[in-house]
């Protein structure tokens, strides 16, 4: 099934909620973050607006920082 914008957004929200309520282990969270980074890297080339790329780059940076924090938790 092709993922549309709504499905992608809903999936991201579910992942965020799982991370927030700590229903996943730190190791599982790291795997989710890695998957998120892969998705964002694939999305970046199709983003046309400069502000969209800046926002995406900010998300990538936050995810990388979070993964690093989990690694040292």
Structure description:
This protein has 73 residues and is an all-alpha fold. It is built from 3 helices and no strands. Helix 2 (26-43) runs antiparallel to helix 3. The chain is globular and about 35 Å long. The relative contact order is 0.11. The model has no long low-confidence stretch (mean pLDDT 80).
List keywords for this structure.
73 residues; mainly alpha
Unreliable sequence segments: none
Strand content: under 5%
Spatial shape: globular
Radius of gyration: 13 Å
**Residues in helix, %:** over 70%
Distance between the termini: 36 Å
What is the overall pLDDT average?
80
Structural class: mainly alpha
The number of helical segments is 3
Number of strands: 0
- Along the chain, the helix and strand elements come as HHH
Q: Let me know the largest β-sheet.
A: none
Summarize the structure.
77% of the residues lie in helices and 0% in strands.
Please specify the SSE layout and strand pairing.
Elements: H1 5-20, H2 26-43, H3 50-71
């Amino acid at each position: 099934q092709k993922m549309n914008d709504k499905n992608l957004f809903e999936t991201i929200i579910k992942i965020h909620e799982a991370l927030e309520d700590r229903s996943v282990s730190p190791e599982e969270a790291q795997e989710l973050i890695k998957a998120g980074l892969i998705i964002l890297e694939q999305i970046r080339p199709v983003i046309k607006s400069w502000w969209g790329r800046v926002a995406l780059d900010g998300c990538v940076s936050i995810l990388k920082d979070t993964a690093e924090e989990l690694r040292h938790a």
